[in-house]
Amino acid sequence: MGTPANDYEVMYGTEIFKTVTMLQIGAPGDDSLREVAAIMKDVTMEYFSPLEQRNEQILQYHNSRGDPRLIEQLCKFLTDDIYREPVDSNDLLINNGASAGVWDLLMRYLLPGDTVFVEDPAYKAILPSLQESEFNLAGIAMDEEGMRMDLLEEKISRTKMRTPSEKFPFAAIVYLVPIFHNPTTKNMSAGRKRKLVELAREYDLLVICDDVYNVLCYRCPESDDPETAKPPKRLFAFDDKKDPGYKGNVVSSGTFSKFLGPGLRLGWYELPPRMQKTHIDHYVFSSGAGKNPYTGALIGLALKKGLVQKHVRDTRRMYAERIKAAHDIISSTVGKLGVSCHLPSGGAFLWIELPKHISASDVLEASQNSVRFLPGQLASPSGSFKNCLRVCITFYELKDLLAGVIKLCGFIEQAIGSS
Ligand SMILES: Cc1ncc(COP(=O)(O)O)c(C=O)c1O
């Protein structure tokens, strides 16, 4: 076996998983995946039995936009259970998940030398590929309301941008996670979202929202109940088709990875009408004819039977309990030492800010690598956030998560004590 490419290979392949607390892993744990496996077994049996229904045709080349039954069910799920405002089924297109979906958009709409504006800090996993690409990477600082629009505007004015053409209609791309941000957990404010749409229209920007955590909402101003709480309005809905200046500048990229299973490799876009045809006519769709129709059909049936909705309700309740309990431990132990950690209203993470003179690597060192987490610096295009770290609450069951967080707080205390 060669060098493991990522945490998952390390984890499942070796002893390390038994001895090291892996608080960096941003994925559902085995307890949750077992429930999803039961759903998959149930719908697979039902789908192919009896075979007279000719459902075996799902193994054939399929509809380019995705299985229409999945699109219909997904639209209903997002409208009724998640956003609680209308989603237009004509905007939906099924893909292989957010990573491939976002990268596909970058490849399709950018030319070498074009700029990608990202939050600072940003989703860590995308940064190395952007840094190695032929695109310019520009980090824009955030505050409590998300990416700062004054800094974005200033950066735009100092960036040489290509004149858009019919074939390449966007001068640059803004990539961001506006809801339950990875890693900081922040939500972009409504005012900032409005401003970003305004800038996108003015400067012909494509705004790609990595909306992968929207479904994992635990509370909102109207509800403290994780079953009924709704996430903040997504940026895609701010680019309103009824506006006189509407062109279609925003994409929402969603995924089943975070609330079902990453191994499904299934996700979706909400794409503005002007991007639909370009996408569907592309070789990948015309020749490949639909991304993941087999899994899509099974998930379509699981949605129709209400199994996904039930799993999402259970998951939200479970994660809400975990995030609150983990947060309470951090606040009550290291909170008094100048460590701050805000309780997010959704998502998969806690973002911990240590006193300025302590770095995440001091904590790693104190733990002798027995507790892992994401050091903030790795998520920063400018190499900032040395004193920050991100902990994921989804991977371990409550008891093990809390044991890991208690251990982590002990090492934070140790790092502060010896500074
Ligand atoms: C912001 C963000 N985008 C994308 C992904 C990956 O999504 P997918 O599994 O759909 O490719 C993650 C997973 O951690 C993420 O946090």
Question: How are the elements arranged and paired?
Answer:
Blueprint (H helix, E strand, L loop, with lengths): L6 H7 L2 H4 L1 E2 L7 H18 L20 H16 L8 E4 L2 H12 L5 E6 L6 H6 L3 E8 L2 E2 L1 H9 L14 E5 L13 H14 L1 E6 L24 H4 L11 E6 L11 E4 L2 H9 L1 H6 L4 H12 L2 H27 L6 E2 L7 E5 L6 H7 L4 E2 L1 E2 L12 E5 L5 H20 L2
Parallel strand pairs: 1-12, 3-4, 3-6, 6-7, 7-8
Antiparallel strand pairs: 2-9, 4-5, 8-9, 10-11, 11-14, 13-14
Helix pairs in contact: 3-12, 3-13, 4-12, 13-15, 14-15
The structure holds pyridoxal-5'-phosphate (PLP).
What does this structure look like?
- The protein is of the alpha/beta class.
- The protein folds into two domains: 7-32 and 312-417, Aspartate Aminotransferase, domain 1; 51-308, 3-Layer(aba) Sandwich (Aspartate Aminotransferase, domain 2).
- The protein has 15 helices and 14 strands.
- It has helices at 7-13, 16-19, 30-47, 68-83, 98-109, 127-132, 149-157, 190-203, 235-238, 273-281, 283-288, 293-304, 307-333, 360-366, 398-417; strands at residues 21-22, 92-95, 115-120, 136-143, 146-147, 172-176, 205-210, 250-255, 267-270, 340-341, 349-353, 371-372, 374-375, 388-392.
- The strands form three sheets. It has an eight-stranded mixed β-sheet, with helices on both faces.
- Strand 6 (172-176), helix 8 (190-203) and strand 7 (205-210) form a beta-alpha-beta unit.
- Helix 3 packs across helix 12, helix 3 (30-47) packs antiparallel against helix 13 and helix 14 (360-366) packs across helix 15 (398-417).
- The longest helix is centred in the last third of the chain and has 27 residues, at 307-333.
- The radius of gyration is 22 Å and the shape is globular.
- The two termini are 41 Å apart.
- The mean pLDDT is 94.
- The structure holds pyridoxal-5'-phosphate.
